[in-house]
Design brief:
Elements (H helix, E strand, L loop, with lengths): L16 H26 L2 H28 L5 H23 L7 H14 L3
Helix pairs in contact: 1-2, 1-4, 2-3
């Protein structure tokens, strides 16, 4: 059997957990922004479906953030854990409020929170 040499690939550094969390929040914000822009342009059911999918994704992400913060990270100060839990509740509340009154501009708070927390995680 002939010897096959594999091409050497440059090592990609593993991102730090905080960077991964920040990127996930930014991705969720991007999805919300894209859905918001589509709804403003068209107002069609497809846009509503895109918003619903983005909201579900964002809500799941925040459930994971809150769960990880409250249950597994005692290194965080109590005030930080409390603030993140409060933000998670706010995300839930805003998601439900949007269902009752689906104006695309209501998504701005969720997008802003994701950006702000991601900035903090990345040290900006």
């Amino acid at each position: 059997m002939p010897c096959i040499e594999t091409a050497s690939r440059p090592e990609r550094p593993t991102p730090a957990p905080r960077e991964v969390q920040a990127l996930l929040l930014l991705d969720a914000a991007r999805r919300l922004q894209a859905a918001q822009s589509g709804a403003v342009r068209s107002g069609a059911q497809a846009s509503r479906d895109a918003i619903d999918a983005a909201l579900v994704h964002n809500r799941r992400l925040w459930h994971d953030v809150v769960g990880a913060t409250v249950a597994t990270d005692p290194a965080l100060p109590c005030a930080v854990r409390h603030s993140l839990a409060s933000l998670g509740l706010f995300v839930d509340h805003q998601t439900v409020a949007f269902a009752a009154d689906p104006r695309p501009e209501r998504l701005a708070a969720l997008i802003g929170i994701n950006h702000d927390i991601a900035d903090g995680l990345m040290g900006a």
